[in-house]
Amino acid sequence: MKTAISISNVSKSYKDVQALKNISFEVGEGELFGLIGPDGAGKTTLFRILCTLMLPDSGEARVCDLDVVEDFRAIRNRIGYMPGRFSLYQDLTVEENLEFFATIFGTTIAENYDLIKDIYVQLEPFKNRLAGALSGGMKQKLALCCALIHKPDVLFLDEPTTGVDAVSRKEFWQMLKRLKEDRLAILVSTPYMDEAALCDRVALIQQGEILSINTPEKISEEFQGTLIAMKSHRVYELLTALRNHPLTVSCYAFGEFLHVTLREASDAKQLESDIRAQGFDDLEAHPVTPGIENVFMQLLKQSAA
Amino acid sequence: MEQEKVIIADKLTRKFGDFIATNAITFEVSKGEIFGFLGANGAGKTTAMRMLCGLLAPSSGKATVAGYDVGTQAEMVKKHIGYMSQKFSLYEDLTVKENFLFYGGVYGLKRKDILDRLDQMLQRLELEHALKTMVGDLPLGWKQKLSFSLAMLHRPEIVFLDEPTGGVDPITRRQFWDLIYEAAHDGVTIFVTTHYMDEAEYCDRVSIMVDGVIEALDSPENLRKSFNADTMDAVFQELARGTSTK
Known about the structure:
The complex is a heterodimer.
Chain A: E1 3-14, E2 17-28, E3 32-36, H1 43-50, E4 58-63, E5 66-67, H2 72-78, E6 79-82, H3 94-104, H4 113-123, H5 136-148, E7 154-157, H6 166-181, E8 185-190, H7 193-196, E9 201-206, E10 209-214, H8 216-220, E11 226-231, H9 235-244, E12 248-254, E13 257-262, H10 267-277, E14 284-287, H11 292-304
Parallel strand pairs in A: 3-8, 3-9, 6-7, 7-8
Antiparallel strand pairs in A: 1-2, 1-4, 4-5, 9-10, 11-13, 11-14, 12-13
Helix pairs in contact in A: 3-5, 4-5
Chain B: E1 5-16, E2 19-30, E3 34-39, H1 45-52, E4 60-65, E5 68-69, H2 74-80, E6 81-85, H3 96-106, H4 111-125, H5 140-151, E7 158-162, H6 170-185, E8 189-193, H7 197-201, E9 205-210, E10 213-218, H8 220-226, H9 232-240
Parallel strand pairs in B: 3-8, 3-9, 6-7, 7-8
Antiparallel strand pairs in B: 1-2, 1-4, 4-5, 9-10
Helix pairs in contact in B: 3-4, 5-6
């Protein structure tokens, strides 16, 4: 696999805040790479450096084997960038926006229509609508088309699905899957853990540091301890009771269940009977396989401690 | 659960020209309930929520919130509810303390009461040190928790939360839900919208809006059963699919 993005020891500070601390990783051609982390983790700073909009304080980054500092002009022609904030012209129509982006890259919609066709057919009924009047999901699709219209080799998507509903999110990710089949390298950031599971590899990032890089499956295996799912109709009381129990390492709501982390699998029986004895007659409990969200929460807690 | 109804919507409708954004929705919410208000982007959630908060007059139908009519007693509704939106809740260029004093003042609270309550709230959030920090300098997760506290400052009976947890890490998101559980446990009614389907599971009941209409309304458990689905995400995908291309 050819390398599309390579980052080595990149650091960046704003006054006394260190936004990126010695970040290194590579993304291959045709790879869908997820940058997973909360607001303020440094994701956007990294995107700006890779998109040649900001200089790193130290370290080196290459995109399409071009240096982000030396060769910034050449890089700009080879990448597509979708910033976190909606950055299209709200007072231009859907079609005018797309035409504008095609024109500044010296191409036409017709020339690269194949690349955006699957996405654009959904927008076409509204091509005369002002971009500002589109729903959240449609805005994201238009922004993706605009980032793709010059046929880039690498695509940078900074939180493309924040604030977008669950159905549109799923469609958006199906589009990304299709794009990477065309050998496009995609670096995408997201706060949604279910989206992390759809990436080829992910980097978990927190406060400018990478906590882990691996495939979603491998990351899930990094979980330490035993995970138990519990449920009662008195959710708040159960949450409090579990958190107050000495065997509980941590307890968080997880969909319809509460996920309890224990040090040893053998603690589960004790915990269950103690909790039941506290009057939770309808208690349901069973072991669960940790997912990427469980691991990320564990890593977040450890890095905060 | 207590049976006192604090939100009653009866064929609540809002049109914009020919477009019916909210189409005759009817539902009730009980005191102390956590009510999830779901729907795809553009399904009509915001319009419905604006009407319930007394910010937008209904075209037809009616709704009472905390016992007041949203059409004819909008000002009374506003006094009895709290509201938090993801887009705007706090002034970024005021400190935490200044924000609370400002909002408390708007609600007619005494300075001392505001500061006492702020003190309690910051202690609960373990954010005492942030009192004199400019809100713009705070991490998003802190802002969200402070916005929630601010919405609760005048001890409203109902709080409306519009996508309160977007963009934060999974632990912070759950800490936010701890605050919601706690408030509901104290008898405050929670009306919340979210795009996180795991959060839909945390609600006592959930409604799903599609094209201006409430297509489903029940407990997450019953919805999963009736749609033969493992998760609320699957229920949502089933119901809301086809609307996302609008």
